[in-house]
TrEMBL record:
<feature type="repeat" description="TPR">
    <location>
        <begin position="36"/>
        <end position="69"/>
    </location>
</feature>
<dbReference type="InterPro" id="IPR011990">
    <property type="entry name" value="TPR-like_helical_dom_sf"/>
</dbReference>
<keyword id="KW-0732">Signal</keyword>
<feature type="repeat" description="TPR">
    <location>
        <begin position="171"/>
        <end position="204"/>
    </location>
</feature>
<protein>
    <submittedName>
        <fullName>TPR repeat-containing protein</fullName>
    </submittedName>
</protein>
<dbReference type="Pfam" id="PF13432">
    <property type="entry name" value="TPR_16"/>
</dbReference>
<feature type="signal peptide">
    <location>
        <begin position="1"/>
        <end position="20"/>
    </location>
</feature>
<keyword id="KW-0802">TPR repeat</keyword>
<dbReference type="InterPro" id="IPR019734">
    <property type="entry name" value="TPR_rpt"/>
</dbReference>
Length: 284
């Protein structure tokens, strides 16, 4: 009987010991999961919201202890491009591409970095490595920009149209497409596309400025009816004045410069200098 009791106690002791080890392992696994989750969240914040130069330091330090992590490599590449350190970003993206876990999205991001550096041939070559079945907004936007750089207008139009169909926020694409039309001399087409951009995002100032350029190129020197602040109105009048002067409509340009100076709530140095230069030329 005594042996049975001792045996039972031993079994119970072993069971409790095993349970204790199991519980400790589960707790440690849970802690590791939390740490991994925290690290992933921190990486995401650094890539998208943090100061890009701080993000570069963060990912560079992390890669020092885990150099094979493709997530950290991506984070460094994204952060370098965000920090306008594009040549370094290109190098970092090429490191990502060489990783066995690299994706088509990574290749598209590398193409985007090449575009930022105006390395159009490299951008095109990189996009050519992405299979046609990989259809994303960013891919087609970059394809359109590459086609623009080669003056392949039909291709560019097709790619812009496809990109617009793949996003719920197409304002920037309409603006890019409009600027493409502007460079081709299709001012009416450009005006229409800039209007489309502003219908989707009435705050997009670059589209407002480009719209004024398109109208000015047609010798239409009246500001469009769009939402604008007082400062924006002054800046758009200045843009319109320069467009008029470029087309030798100097008197109209001077009048628009004067309006811009009067409209601006503060001292408008650029417009003042431009008007003074015109008046000095007229005097001389």
């Amino acid at each position: 009987m005594r042996h049975k009791i001792i045996l039972s106690l031993c079994v119970a002791s072993l069971t409790l010991s095993a349970c204790a080890r199991s519980t400790e392992e589960e707790i440690q696994a849970a802690i590791n999961d939390i740490h991994a989750s925290d690290a992933a969240n921190l990486n995401q914040v650094m890539m998208t919201m943090g100061d890009p130069n701080d993000a570069v330091q963060h990912f560079s330090a992390a890669l020092g202890t885990n150099p094979e992590s493709i997530e950290l490599q991506r984070g460094l590449a994204i952060s370098l491009v965000r920090a306008s350190r594009v040549p370094e970003g290109i190098t970092a993206w090429n490191t990502v591409i060489a990783h066995p876990e690299a994706t088509n999205e990574d290749r598209v991001e590398l193409a985007g970095a090449y575009i930022r550096a105006s390395e159009w041939d490299n951008a095109a070559a990189t996009l050519n490595t992405v299979p046609p079945t990989y259809e994303t907004f960013k891919r087609y936007r970059y394809e359109a920009m590459v086609a623009d750089s080669r003056q392949q207008w039909d291709k560019a139009d097709s790619f812009y149209q496809t990109a617009i169909g793949l996003t719920t926020r197409p304002a920037s694409v309409y603006n890019n497409w409009g600027f493409s039309k502007l460079t081709r001399g299709d001012y009416r087409g450009a005006e229409r596309l800039f209007g489309d951009a502003l219908r989707h995002d009435p705050t997009l100032f670059t589209a407002k400025n480009n719209l004024v350029l398109a109208r000015g190129a047609q010798r239409n020197y009246v500001l469009p009816v769009v939402d604008m602040t007082q400062i924006e109105r002054a800046q758009l009048l200045y843009t319109l004045a320069l467009a008029a002067i470029k087309q030798n409509d100097v008197s109209i340009g001077k009048s628009l410069l004067a309006d811009a100076i009067e409209t601006h709530p503060r001292h408008f140095e650029e417009a003042v200098r431009a008007l003074q230069a015109l008046e000095n030329n007229a005097t001389n």
